[in-house]
Protein backbone atom coordinates (compact mmCIF):
# COMPACT_ATOMS: atom_id res chain seq x y z
CA UNK A 1 0.00 0.00 0.00
CA UNK A 2 2.98 2.23 0.65
CA UNK A 3 2.47 5.96 0.26
CA UNK A 4 -1.15 5.74 -0.73
CA UNK A 5 -2.55 5.11 2.73
CA UNK A 6 -5.23 7.75 2.36
CA UNK A 7 -6.25 6.70 -1.11
CA UNK A 8 -6.42 3.02 -0.25
CA UNK A 9 -7.71 3.06 3.30
CA UNK A 10 -10.40 5.70 3.42
CA UNK A 11 -12.21 4.20 0.45
CA UNK A 12 -13.48 1.33 2.62
CA UNK A 13 -16.78 3.11 2.31
CA UNK A 14 -20.05 1.35 2.13
CA UNK A 15 -22.86 1.92 -0.30
CA UNK A 16 -24.42 5.00 1.25
CA UNK A 17 -28.03 6.13 1.26
CA UNK A 18 -27.76 9.90 1.57
CA UNK A 19 -30.58 12.10 2.75
CA UNK A 20 -32.62 13.06 -0.27
CA UNK A 21 -33.39 16.48 1.20
CA UNK A 22 -29.78 17.59 1.61
CA UNK A 23 -27.01 17.48 -0.96
CA UNK A 24 -23.36 17.04 -0.19
CA UNK A 25 -22.70 20.46 -1.70
CA UNK A 26 -25.53 22.05 0.26
CA UNK A 27 -28.06 22.32 -2.54
CA UNK A 28 -31.47 20.69 -2.61
CA UNK A 29 -31.82 17.32 -4.27
CA UNK A 30 -34.66 15.86 -6.23
CA UNK A 31 -36.05 12.87 -4.29
CA UNK A 32 -35.01 9.52 -5.73
CA UNK A 33 -37.53 7.54 -7.74
CA UNK A 34 -37.63 3.71 -7.64
CA UNK A 35 -36.46 3.63 -11.27
CA UNK A 36 -33.59 6.03 -10.57
CA UNK A 37 -32.42 4.06 -7.54
CA UNK A 38 -32.59 0.79 -9.50
CA UNK A 39 -30.42 2.26 -12.26
CA UNK A 40 -27.95 3.72 -9.75
CA UNK A 41 -27.59 0.54 -7.69
CA UNK A 42 -27.42 -1.65 -10.77
CA UNK A 43 -24.69 0.55 -12.26
CA UNK A 44 -22.68 0.53 -9.03
CA UNK A 45 -23.00 -3.26 -8.90
CA UNK A 46 -21.63 -3.62 -12.45
CA UNK A 47 -18.86 -1.09 -11.84
CA UNK A 48 -17.80 -3.08 -8.78
CA UNK A 49 -17.65 -6.56 -10.31
CA UNK A 50 -16.03 -5.62 -13.65
CA UNK A 51 -12.71 -4.38 -12.10
CA UNK A 52 -12.50 -7.52 -9.95
CA UNK A 53 -12.99 -9.79 -12.96
CA UNK A 54 -10.54 -7.93 -15.21
CA UNK A 55 -8.00 -7.23 -12.46
CA UNK A 56 -7.92 -10.86 -11.33
CA UNK A 57 -6.90 -12.15 -14.75
CA UNK A 58 -4.40 -9.31 -15.15
CA UNK A 59 -2.90 -10.31 -11.79
CA UNK A 60 -2.12 -13.78 -13.16
CA UNK A 61 -0.07 -12.24 -15.98
CA UNK A 62 1.61 -9.77 -13.62
CA UNK A 63 2.62 -12.47 -11.14
CA UNK A 64 3.97 -14.67 -13.94
CA UNK A 65 6.07 -11.79 -15.26
CA UNK A 66 7.49 -11.23 -11.78
CA UNK A 67 8.40 -14.89 -11.45
CA UNK A 68 10.05 -14.99 -14.87
CA UNK A 69 12.07 -11.85 -14.20
CA UNK A 70 13.42 -13.14 -10.89
CA UNK A 71 12.22 -9.96 -9.21
CA UNK A 72 11.39 -10.41 -5.54
CA UNK A 73 7.67 -9.64 -5.26
CA UNK A 74 6.22 -7.19 -2.77
CA UNK A 75 3.56 -9.18 -0.96
CA UNK A 76 1.63 -8.57 2.24
CA UNK A 77 2.94 -10.53 5.21
CA UNK A 78 0.79 -11.90 8.03
CA UNK A 79 2.02 -9.07 10.26
CA UNK A 80 1.16 -6.49 7.60
CA UNK A 81 -2.34 -7.94 7.29
CA UNK A 82 -2.87 -7.82 11.05
CA UNK A 83 -1.65 -4.21 11.29
CA UNK A 84 -3.55 -3.03 8.22
CA UNK A 85 -6.90 -2.24 9.96
CA UNK A 86 -5.08 -0.27 12.69
CA UNK A 87 -3.16 1.78 10.13
CA UNK A 88 -6.36 2.28 8.15
CA UNK A 89 -8.18 3.48 11.27
CA UNK A 90 -5.44 5.99 12.10
CA UNK A 91 -5.46 7.30 8.52
CA UNK A 92 -9.24 7.57 8.43
CA UNK A 93 -9.48 9.35 11.79
CA UNK A 94 -6.58 11.65 10.87
CA UNK A 95 -8.37 12.76 7.70
CA UNK A 96 -11.58 13.25 9.71
CA UNK A 97 -9.72 15.56 12.14
CA UNK A 98 -8.20 17.51 9.22
CA UNK A 99 -11.65 18.15 7.80
CA UNK A 100 -12.79 19.36 11.24
CA UNK A 101 -9.82 21.74 11.69
CA UNK A 102 -9.19 23.06 8.18
CA UNK A 103 -11.45 24.15 5.37
CA UNK A 104 -12.37 21.17 3.24
CA UNK A 105 -11.95 23.36 0.13
CA UNK A 106 -8.20 23.70 0.71
CA UNK A 107 -7.77 20.04 1.62
CA UNK A 108 -9.68 18.92 -1.46
CA UNK A 109 -7.60 21.25 -3.63
CA UNK A 110 -4.44 19.41 -2.59
CA UNK A 111 -6.14 16.03 -2.96
CA UNK A 112 -7.37 16.97 -6.43
CA UNK A 113 -3.82 17.69 -7.66
CA UNK A 114 -2.54 14.46 -6.09
CA UNK A 115 -5.26 12.26 -7.53
CA UNK A 116 -5.00 13.98 -10.91
CA UNK A 117 -1.45 12.65 -11.28
CA UNK A 118 -2.28 9.21 -9.88
CA UNK A 119 -5.45 8.96 -11.93
CA UNK A 120 -3.77 9.82 -15.23
CA UNK A 121 -1.03 7.24 -14.63
CA UNK A 122 -3.52 4.56 -13.53
CA UNK A 123 -5.78 5.21 -16.50
CA UNK A 124 -2.82 5.19 -18.91
CA UNK A 125 -1.68 1.82 -17.53
CA UNK A 126 -5.07 0.35 -18.40
CA UNK A 127 -5.75 2.21 -21.66
CA UNK A 128 -2.28 2.10 -23.29
CA UNK A 129 -2.62 -1.37 -24.92
CA UNK A 130 -5.92 -0.37 -26.55
CA UNK A 131 -4.75 3.08 -27.66
CA UNK A 132 -1.51 1.60 -29.02
CA UNK A 133 -3.45 -0.81 -31.22
CA UNK A 134 -5.53 2.04 -32.63
CA UNK A 135 -2.54 4.20 -33.57
CA UNK A 136 -0.26 1.39 -34.80
CA UNK A 137 0.49 1.77 -38.48
CA UNK A 138 0.15 5.53 -38.88
CA UNK A 139 1.75 6.95 -35.73
CA UNK A 140 5.54 7.43 -36.04
CA UNK A 141 7.01 5.47 -33.17
CA UNK A 142 10.32 5.67 -31.37
CA UNK A 143 11.50 3.78 -28.30
CA UNK A 144 13.09 5.34 -25.23
CA UNK A 145 14.85 3.90 -22.21
CA UNK A 146 15.08 5.99 -19.04
CA UNK A 147 17.65 4.79 -16.48
CA UNK A 148 18.49 6.45 -13.19
CA UNK A 149 21.18 4.82 -11.05
CA UNK A 150 23.12 5.56 -7.90
CA UNK A 151 26.60 4.45 -6.83
CA UNK A 152 29.48 3.03 -8.86
CA UNK A 153 30.92 -0.39 -9.54
CA UNK A 154 29.51 -3.14 -7.34
CA UNK A 155 27.48 -0.58 -5.36
CA UNK A 156 25.71 0.62 -8.48
CA UNK A 157 21.95 0.03 -8.38
CA UNK A 158 18.97 1.10 -10.42
CA UNK A 159 16.65 3.68 -8.94
CA UNK A 160 14.52 3.80 -12.06
CA UNK A 161 14.64 1.63 -15.17
CA UNK A 162 11.74 2.37 -17.47
CA UNK A 163 11.24 1.60 -21.15
CA UNK A 164 8.57 3.42 -23.14
CA UNK A 165 7.85 4.72 -26.63
CA UNK A 166 6.00 7.52 -28.35
CA UNK A 167 2.74 5.58 -28.36
CA UNK A 168 2.95 5.38 -24.57
CA UNK A 169 3.42 9.15 -24.46
CA UNK A 170 0.41 9.56 -26.75
CA UNK A 171 -1.68 7.36 -24.42
CA UNK A 172 -0.55 9.48 -21.48
CA UNK A 173 -1.62 12.63 -23.33
CA UNK A 174 -5.07 11.16 -24.09
CA UNK A 175 -5.56 10.18 -20.44
CA UNK A 176 -4.39 13.65 -19.37
CA UNK A 177 -7.34 15.11 -21.27
CA UNK A 178 -9.67 13.07 -19.04
CA UNK A 179 -7.63 14.25 -16.06
CA UNK A 180 -8.12 17.91 -16.98
CA UNK A 181 -11.82 17.25 -17.48
CA UNK A 182 -11.92 15.91 -13.93
CA UNK A 183 -10.00 18.96 -12.64
CA UNK A 184 -12.29 21.37 -14.45
CA UNK A 185 -15.72 19.85 -13.89
CA UNK A 186 -15.29 17.18 -11.19
CA UNK A 187 -17.84 15.32 -13.28
CA UNK A 188 -19.02 11.98 -11.94
CA UNK A 189 -18.14 10.18 -15.18
CA UNK A 190 -14.52 11.38 -14.99
CA UNK A 191 -14.50 10.39 -11.30
CA UNK A 192 -15.68 6.90 -12.20
CA UNK A 193 -13.12 6.49 -14.99
CA UNK A 194 -10.36 7.20 -12.48
CA UNK A 195 -12.05 5.03 -9.84
CA UNK A 196 -12.34 2.07 -12.20
CA UNK A 197 -8.68 2.47 -13.23
CA UNK A 198 -7.60 2.56 -9.56
CA UNK A 199 -9.68 -0.55 -8.84
CA UNK A 200 -8.32 -2.60 -11.75
CA UNK A 201 -4.73 -1.58 -10.96
CA UNK A 202 -5.26 -2.35 -7.28
CA UNK A 203 -6.57 -5.86 -7.90
CA UNK A 204 -3.82 -6.50 -10.46
CA UNK A 205 -0.80 -5.11 -8.63
CA UNK A 206 -1.54 -5.51 -4.90
CA UNK A 207 -0.61 -9.00 -3.88
CA UNK A 208 -1.65 -11.46 -1.21
CA UNK A 209 0.72 -14.42 -1.19
CA UNK A 210 -1.28 -16.81 1.00
CA UNK A 211 -4.95 -17.51 1.68
CA UNK A 212 -4.32 -17.38 5.44
CA UNK A 213 -2.96 -13.83 5.07
CA UNK A 214 -6.09 -12.89 3.13
CA UNK A 215 -8.28 -14.31 5.92
CA UNK A 216 -6.47 -12.20 8.53
CA UNK A 217 -6.73 -9.07 6.37
CA UNK A 218 -10.41 -9.48 5.57
CA UNK A 219 -11.23 -10.46 9.16
CA UNK A 220 -9.57 -7.32 10.53
CA UNK A 221 -11.25 -5.04 7.99
CA UNK A 222 -14.57 -6.72 8.75
CA UNK A 223 -14.33 -5.31 12.31
CA UNK A 224 -12.88 -2.01 11.04
CA UNK A 225 -15.75 -1.37 8.65
CA UNK A 226 -18.46 -2.20 11.19
CA UNK A 227 -16.94 0.04 13.86
CA UNK A 228 -16.38 3.11 11.69
CA UNK A 229 -19.80 2.96 10.01
CA UNK A 230 -22.07 1.84 12.88
CA UNK A 231 -19.99 3.04 15.84
CA UNK A 232 -19.21 6.58 14.67
CA UNK A 233 -20.06 9.09 11.95
CA UNK A 234 -16.42 9.27 10.84
CA UNK A 235 -16.66 7.05 7.77
CA UNK A 236 -19.75 8.69 6.31
CA UNK A 237 -18.44 12.20 7.10
CA UNK A 238 -15.15 11.56 5.32
CA UNK A 239 -16.94 9.99 2.35
CA UNK A 240 -19.12 13.06 1.88
CA UNK A 241 -16.26 15.55 2.41
CA UNK A 242 -13.59 13.76 0.36
CA UNK A 243 -13.78 15.10 -3.19
CA UNK A 244 -11.48 12.59 -4.83
CA UNK A 245 -11.96 9.51 -7.02
CA UNK A 246 -11.74 7.13 -4.06
CA UNK A 247 -15.33 6.03 -4.56
CA UNK A 248 -17.59 5.12 -7.45
CA UNK A 249 -20.73 7.22 -7.69
CA UNK A 250 -23.87 7.06 -9.77
CA UNK A 251 -26.76 9.54 -9.76
CA UNK A 252 -30.18 8.38 -8.60
CA UNK A 253 -31.79 11.30 -10.43
CA UNK A 254 -30.25 10.51 -13.83
CA UNK A 255 -33.65 10.16 -15.49
CA UNK A 256 -34.71 13.61 -14.25
CA UNK A 257 -31.47 15.61 -14.61
CA UNK A 258 -29.44 13.65 -17.15
CA UNK A 259 -25.65 13.98 -16.95
CA UNK A 260 -25.94 16.98 -14.62
CA UNK A 261 -27.62 14.85 -11.93
CA UNK A 262 -26.24 15.24 -8.40
CA UNK A 263 -28.11 12.87 -6.04
CA UNK A 264 -25.52 10.12 -5.77
CA UNK A 265 -25.32 6.62 -4.40
CA UNK A 266 -21.72 5.64 -3.74
CA UNK A 267 -19.43 2.67 -3.20
CA UNK A 268 -15.88 3.02 -1.85
CA UNK A 269 -12.98 1.55 -3.79
CA UNK A 270 -11.84 -0.35 -0.70
CA UNK A 271 -14.99 -2.44 -0.89
CA UNK A 272 -13.89 -3.46 -4.37
CA UNK A 273 -10.10 -3.74 -4.09
CA UNK A 274 -9.81 -5.51 -0.71
CA UNK A 275 -12.11 -8.45 -1.58
CA UNK A 276 -10.79 -8.24 -5.15
CA UNK A 277 -7.18 -9.04 -4.26
CA UNK A 278 -8.41 -12.10 -2.33
CA UNK A 279 -10.50 -13.27 -5.30
CA UNK A 280 -7.48 -12.71 -7.58
CA UNK A 281 -5.46 -14.97 -5.25
CA UNK A 282 -8.12 -17.65 -5.62
CA UNK A 283 -7.77 -17.44 -9.41
CA UNK A 284 -4.00 -17.91 -9.14
CA UNK A 285 -4.63 -20.90 -6.84
CA UNK A 286 -6.94 -22.34 -9.52
CA UNK A 287 -4.17 -21.92 -12.10
CA UNK A 288 -1.65 -23.66 -9.82
CA UNK A 289 -3.87 -26.77 -9.64
CA UNK A 290 -3.65 -27.12 -13.46
CA UNK A 291 -7.11 -28.65 -13.71
CA UNK A 292 -8.34 -26.35 -16.49
CA UNK A 293 -10.93 -25.13 -14.01
CA UNK A 294 -11.43 -21.85 -12.17
CA UNK A 295 -13.97 -23.10 -9.65
CA UNK A 296 -12.47 -21.23 -6.67
CA UNK A 297 -12.27 -17.96 -8.55
CA UNK A 298 -15.90 -18.20 -9.58
CA UNK A 299 -16.89 -19.27 -6.06
CA UNK A 300 -15.26 -16.10 -4.73
CA UNK A 301 -16.68 -13.98 -7.54
CA UNK A 302 -20.24 -15.26 -7.04
CA UNK A 303 -19.83 -14.79 -3.27
CA UNK A 304 -18.81 -11.16 -3.85
CA UNK A 305 -21.87 -10.60 -6.06
CA UNK A 306 -24.15 -12.09 -3.38
CA UNK A 307 -22.50 -10.04 -0.63
CA UNK A 308 -22.71 -6.78 -2.57
CA UNK A 309 -26.32 -7.49 -3.54
CA UNK A 310 -27.15 -8.09 0.13
CA UNK A 311 -25.44 -4.81 1.07
CA UNK A 312 -27.52 -2.85 -1.42
CA UNK A 313 -30.75 -4.55 -0.35
CA UNK A 314 -30.14 -3.95 3.39
CA UNK A 315 -29.06 -0.36 2.77
CA UNK A 316 -32.17 0.34 0.70
CA UNK A 317 -34.48 -1.36 3.20
CA UNK A 318 -33.14 0.41 6.31
CA UNK A 319 -32.27 3.70 4.54
CA UNK A 320 -28.92 3.84 6.32
CA UNK A 321 -25.27 3.60 5.29
CA UNK A 322 -24.03 0.02 5.50
CA UNK A 323 -20.52 -1.39 6.14
CA UNK A 324 -20.24 -3.39 2.94
CA UNK A 325 -17.48 -5.62 4.33
CA UNK A 326 -19.98 -6.84 6.96
CA UNK A 327 -21.63 -8.80 4.13
CA UNK A 328 -18.72 -9.20 1.70
CA UNK A 329 -16.18 -10.77 4.06
CA UNK A 330 -18.28 -13.74 5.29
CA UNK A 331 -19.41 -14.42 1.72
CA UNK A 332 -15.94 -14.19 0.10
CA UNK A 333 -14.30 -16.32 2.80
CA UNK A 334 -17.16 -18.72 3.42
CA UNK A 335 -18.19 -19.94 -0.03
CA UNK A 336 -14.67 -20.71 -1.44
CA UNK A 337 -13.76 -22.46 1.84
CA UNK A 338 -16.93 -24.54 1.67
CA UNK A 339 -16.15 -25.51 -1.94
CA UNK A 340 -12.59 -26.47 -0.93
CA UNK A 341 -13.92 -28.66 1.90
CA UNK A 342 -16.33 -30.42 -0.47
CA UNK A 343 -13.64 -30.97 -3.13
CA UNK A 344 -10.96 -31.97 -0.61
CA UNK A 345 -8.63 -29.06 -1.46
CA UNK A 346 -8.73 -27.21 1.86
CA UNK A 347 -5.17 -28.20 2.86
CA UNK A 348 -3.80 -27.36 -0.59
CA UNK A 349 -5.61 -24.02 -0.52
CA UNK A 350 -4.04 -22.92 2.77
CA UNK A 351 -0.60 -24.24 1.78
CA UNK A 352 -0.58 -22.43 -1.56
CA UNK A 353 1.93 -19.61 -2.07
CA UNK A 354 2.30 -17.43 -5.15
CA UNK A 355 6.04 -17.08 -4.71
CA UNK A 356 8.05 -19.61 -2.72
CA UNK A 357 11.65 -18.83 -1.82
CA UNK A 358 12.82 -21.62 -4.12
CA UNK A 359 10.91 -20.19 -7.10
CA UNK A 360 12.29 -16.72 -6.49
CA UNK A 361 15.86 -18.03 -6.21
CA UNK A 362 15.51 -20.16 -9.37
CA UNK A 363 14.10 -17.27 -11.40
CA UNK A 364 16.84 -14.92 -10.14
CA UNK A 365 19.54 -17.44 -11.11
CA UNK A 366 17.99 -17.84 -14.55
CA UNK A 367 17.89 -14.09 -15.08
CA UNK A 368 21.50 -13.72 -13.92
CA UNK A 369 22.57 -16.44 -16.39
CA UNK A 370 20.88 -14.54 -19.23
CA UNK A 371 22.69 -11.33 -18.30
CA UNK A 372 26.02 -13.20 -18.19
CA UNK A 373 25.43 -14.63 -21.69
CA UNK A 374 24.57 -11.16 -23.02
CA UNK A 375 27.81 -9.78 -21.57
CA UNK A 376 29.82 -12.49 -23.32
Automatic annotation (TrEMBL):
<dbReference type="InterPro" id="IPR006639">
    <property type="entry name" value="Preselin/SPP"/>
</dbReference>
<dbReference type="GO" id="GO:0098553">
    <property type="term" value="C:lumenal side of endoplasmic reticulum membrane"/>
</dbReference>
<protein>
    <recommendedName>
        <fullName>Minor histocompatibility antigen H13</fullName>
    </recommendedName>
</protein>
<dbReference type="Pfam" id="PF04258">
    <property type="entry name" value="Peptidase_A22B"/>
</dbReference>
<dbReference type="GO" id="GO:0006465">
    <property type="term" value="P:signal peptide processing"/>
</dbReference>
<dbReference type="GO" id="GO:0033619">
    <property type="term" value="P:membrane protein proteolysis"/>
</dbReference>
<dbReference type="GO" id="GO:0042500">
    <property type="term" value="F:aspartic endopeptidase activity, intramembrane cleaving"/>
</dbReference>
<dbReference type="InterPro" id="IPR007369">
    <property type="entry name" value="Peptidase_A22B_SPP"/>
</dbReference>
<keyword id="KW-0378">Hydrolase</keyword>
<keyword id="KW-1133">Transmembrane helix</keyword>
<feature type="transmembrane region" description="Helical">
    <location>
        <begin position="38"/>
        <end position="60"/>
    </location>
</feature>
<feature type="transmembrane region" description="Helical">
    <location>
        <begin position="111"/>
        <end position="132"/>
    </location>
</feature>
<feature type="transmembrane region" description="Helical">
    <location>
        <begin position="295"/>
        <end position="318"/>
    </location>
</feature>
<dbReference type="GO" id="GO:0098554">
    <property type="term" value="C:cytoplasmic side of endoplasmic reticulum membrane"/>
</dbReference>
<feature type="transmembrane region" description="Helical">
    <location>
        <begin position="324"/>
        <end position="342"/>
    </location>
</feature>
<feature type="transmembrane region" description="Helical">
    <location>
        <begin position="190"/>
        <end position="208"/>
    </location>
</feature>
<feature type="transmembrane region" description="Helical">
    <location>
        <begin position="81"/>
        <end position="99"/>
    </location>
</feature>
<keyword id="KW-0256">Endoplasmic reticulum</keyword>
<comment type="similarity">
    <text>Belongs to the peptidase A22B family.</text>
</comment>
<feature type="transmembrane region" description="Helical">
    <location>
        <begin position="215"/>
        <end position="239"/>
    </location>
</feature>
<feature type="transmembrane region" description="Helical">
    <location>
        <begin position="259"/>
        <end position="283"/>
    </location>
</feature>
<keyword id="KW-0472">Membrane</keyword>
<keyword id="KW-0812">Transmembrane</keyword>
